[in-house]
Design a protein that fits this description.
This protein is mainly β. The chain has strands at about 5, 10-15, 20-25, 35-40, 45-50, 55-60, 65-70, 75-80, 90-100, 105, 110-115.
């Protein structure tokens, strides 16, 4: 069983930056993909960014060019660098680990990101 602990959320002004971290403990397979989703009040959870075990990345159109996902396989940690933040980025951000393609995700507890206008 993988456990995920997120950190780095907070309150920032429009145009500011935040860096989220998510450390996975337990056994993380070499095939595991990692990533971030977010959920704003009254909205469904949506994909933000993913990174495969090989380092390939994928981003939601709304964050391309502003957010960067990366991972450290030695510590099983995934990061989300968020620049040029907008009020519409306000949400609870959840990290996940997916051990094998098509398998279930393990989720973190979520971290709040709030962007003031």
């Amino acid at each position: 069983q993988v456990q995920l602990v997120e950190s780095g959320g907070g309150l920032v002004q429009t145009g500011g930056s935040l860096r989220l971290s998510c450390a996975a403990s337990g056994t993380v397979f070499s095939t595991a993909s990692m990533g971030w989703y977010r959920q704003a009040p009254g909205k469904q959870r949506e994909l933000v960014a993913t990174v495969t075990s090989g380092g390939a990345t994928n981003y939601a159109d709304s964050v391309k060019g502003r957010f960067t996902i990366s991972r450290d396989n030695t510590t099983n940690t995934v990061f989300l660098q968020m620049n040029s933040l907008k009020p519409e980025d306000t949400a609870v951000y959840y990290c996940y680990v997916r051990q094998v393609f098509g398998g279930p995700r393990s989720w973190g507890q979520g971290t709040q990101v709030s962007v003031s206008s």
